[in-house]
């Protein structure tokens, strides 16, 4: 089953055109990465899905339906969870309250507070702590846990390694790999190639708002991948 399908999409903000003829696809159970330097349009792909960026041409479908009616506030109910760049933890809420905020009432699935605490034991230990009082890595766990609370069909992570120490990025990769092994469909937007190799099966490379490379990560060396990202 195809979860996310972009076909020849042009999109941008105001008069600025950012995405040019972008096509990509994520199927159920798949882990796909979007790679590229800063400013090439990676986050605009996400913003196009939730109506923050304006689509000028092309088609976007989620689970076979046009996404024109999906917005940031309704994405979770539709089965789309986004872990945003910068995490956006609500500072006035505890860890438990931040997690509860991510729940999508009426969506069945395996993820609830106990399941998230089982995946991230530190969140149970810090459940009554303000969300922003934790380390950057712990806040990223909280952001991912909040996304899982909606029992999503597709989990999108936008630059999850940003600002994290290398050892924490390694732990993040292990966490995302475990989620993938449990059948979670993942779209990973990332510049850290080590994290991409640990989590994703396929990749797309964006440059100047266009897809310039795509393929499978299996058998691809780190040096070759670096060349793809450097285009």
Automatic annotation (TrEMBL):
Recorded GO MF terms: ATP binding; ATP hydrolysis activity; branched-chain amino acid transmembrane transporter activity
Keywords: Amino-acid transport, ATP-binding, Nucleotide-binding, Transport
Record carries keyword Transcription regulation: no
Residues of the ABC transporter domain: 1-231
Pfam family, one: ABC_tran
Protein's UniProt name: ABC transporter ATP-binding protein
Biological process, per Gene Ontology: L-amino acid transport
InterPro entries: AAA+_ATPase, ABC_transporter-like_ATP-bd, ABC_transporter-like_CS, BCAA_Transport_ATP-bd_LivF, P-loop_NTPase
Family membership: Belongs to the ABC transporter superfamily.
Gene3D superfamilies: P-loop containing nucleotide triphosphate hydrolases (3.40.50.300)
PROSITE patterns, A to Z: ABC_TRANSPORTER_1, ABC_TRANSPORTER_2
């Amino acid at each position: 089953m195809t979860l996310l399908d972009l076909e020849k999409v042009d999109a941008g903000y105001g008069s600025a055109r950012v995405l040019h003829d972008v096509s990509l696809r994520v199927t159920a159970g798949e882990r796909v990465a979007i790679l590229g330097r800063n400013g090439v349009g990676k986050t605009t792909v996400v913003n196009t899905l939730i109506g923050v960026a304006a689509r000028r041409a092309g088609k976007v479908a989620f689970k076979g339906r046009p996404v024109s009616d999906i917005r940031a506030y309704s994405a979770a109910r539709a089965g789309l969870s986004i872990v945003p760049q910068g995490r956006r933890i609500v500072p006035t809420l505890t860890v438990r309250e931040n997690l509860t905020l991510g729940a999508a009432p009426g969506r069945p699935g395996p993820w609830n507070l106990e399941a998230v605490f089982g995946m991230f034991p530190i969140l149970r230990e810090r459940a009554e702590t303000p969300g922003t009082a934790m380390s950057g890595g712990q806040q990223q766990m909280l952001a991912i846990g909040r996304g899982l609370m909606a029992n999503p069909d597709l989990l999108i992570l936008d630059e999850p390694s940003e600002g994290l120490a290398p050892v924490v990025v390694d732990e993040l990769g292990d966490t995302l790999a475990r989620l993938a092994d449990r059948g979670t469909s993942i779209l990973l937007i990332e510049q850290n190639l080590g994290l991409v190799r640990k989590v994703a099966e396929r990749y797309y490379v964006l440059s100047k708002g266009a897809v310039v490379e795509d393929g499978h990560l299996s058998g691809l060396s780190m040096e070759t991948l670096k060349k793809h990202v450097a285009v």
